Inverse folding.
């Protein structure tokens, strides 16, 4: 019994030390950034990293296979900041994971677009055609809003974004068949679909232009991607330097002169 109590006490001490470590100020000039798959990591590596390195920072980027893994990594201190989330679901994630994420900076944000390799214009749409859509609630809600704006479907206005599903969608002009799947898989599934609504960062990752889509999302502010950090770190020098880099004229010049970002929604302060 004493042995068990000693082990329990040891585990508690280790857990407390780990929790304290996640909240302590950084003592080194190293910043670890977390990203999902797509072009936001490219924005950072080519537009932000050089600025930080000139200030003496060592920078590391971690790309996660799925965005849902990133908030936990931020909470546990595996990454210092992330570029993957919007205000549409930040509050829900903070509550569910008991984390203190805050919006730290704006980034050029990629709208979704309706695309097809089978049909070259929207007039080809007919009843029963398949449309690939992201299967997570946030991006699914964004996607069907494009179809709603086209007059193809109705969307139940009472369904909250964080629990959104295809059950909130009913036919209007067309009886479409929605095919939800992982957002990152949609570009590769287009041969099996009539249309697909694809997140902009996956479009540009293929070397294509968002502006070439058949219909482009008019992204509301709550769906624009943000830099996020933990609130506990907001007064630390590295966080202030990261924010300044994203708000710098140097980063703006990189973005506006890079064709890769044609069609991205620029931060409001740049417009």
């Amino acid at each position: 019994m004493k042995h068990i109590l000693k082990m329990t006490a040891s585990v508690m001490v280790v857990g407390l030390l780990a929790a304290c470590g996640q909240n302590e100020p950084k003592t080194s000039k190293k910043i670890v950034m977390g990203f999902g798959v797509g072009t936001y990591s490219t924005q950072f590596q080519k537009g932000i990293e050089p600025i930080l390195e000139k200030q003496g920072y060592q920078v590391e980027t971690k790309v996660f296979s799925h965005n849902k893994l990133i908030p936990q990594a931020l909470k546990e201190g595996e990454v210092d900041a992330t570029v993957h989330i919007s205000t549409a679901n930040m509050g829900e994630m903070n509550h569910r994971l008991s984390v203190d994420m805050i919006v730290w900076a704006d980034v050029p944000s990629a709208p979704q677009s309706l695309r097809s390799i089978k049909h070259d214009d929207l007039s080809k749409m007919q009843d029963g055609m398949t449309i690939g859509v992201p299967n997570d609630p946030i991006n699914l809600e964004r996607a069907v809003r494009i179809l709603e704006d086209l007059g193809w479907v109705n969307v139940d206005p009472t369904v909250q974004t964080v629990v959104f599903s295809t059950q909130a969608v009913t036919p209007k002009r067309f009886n479409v068949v929605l095919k939800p799947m992982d957002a990152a898989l949609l570009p590769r599934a287009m041969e099996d679909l009539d249309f697909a609504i694809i997140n902009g960062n996956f479009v540009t990752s293929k070397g294509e232009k968002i502006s070439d889509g058949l219909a482009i999302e008019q992204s509301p502010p709550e769906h624009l991607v943000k830099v996020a950090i933990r609130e506990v770190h907001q007064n630390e020098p590295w966080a202030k330097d990261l924010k300044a880099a994203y708000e710098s004229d140097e980063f703006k010049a990189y973005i506006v002169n890079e064709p890769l970002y044609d069609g991205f929604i620029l931060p409001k302060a740049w417009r």
Q: What stands out?
A: The first helix runs from residue 2 to 23. The chain has two domains: 24-109+223-270, 113-218. Residues 24-109+223-270 form a domain with the D-Maltodextrin-Binding Protein; domain 2 fold (CATH 3.40.190.10).
